[in-house]
Amino acid sequence: MFELTPQALADALGRRDAPLLPCLPGVQSRLLMHGSDTEGRFSLVQHLLDPRALGAPVHRRAREDAYVHALSGEVWALSNGEERKAAAGERIHQQRGQWHAFWNRGDEPASVLEIIAPAGFEKFFGDCGAISGPVDENVLSEMAVGYGAEFDWSATSDVVRRNALSFR
């Protein structure tokens, strides 16, 4: 039976053997805890965001809640229709069924931990990392369907424009 002990969490956060997956321009993701590590309860993903990078397009998931915890820098998030800032040590809850996104609109790199519960969606980052070339909205949308998720590309364009982010 899986038990989230302080040691298990410290081990996950210390993992540097997990590959960095290039999912979107200016964003690399590292899978620290998979659903297979937690009996499907949750997954833990670290995202490294370059300055002015969109961490996740505006999307919603049918099955999972997420918590985005800022480790360094400042990240902004859209959650429940509101834009909020999270400085290092702060977190933002992104509920299933609600449109949400996160980004780094600052001039310094940022790092976040994303806790996704229940597990399963972490596999999307592996699939996304296998795509080469520029962002293809149609390909990402088709992939998302298999994970019970959907993107809002119009809202994403608005977030990118308002915050002077790089995305393509």
Automatic annotation (TrEMBL):
The Cupin type-2 domain, residue ranges: 49-115
Domain of life the protein comes from: Bacteria
InterPro entries per record: Cupin_2, QDO-like, RmlC-like_jellyroll, RmlC_Cupin_sf
Listed Pfam families: Cupin_2
UniProt name for this protein: Cupin type-2 domain-containing protein
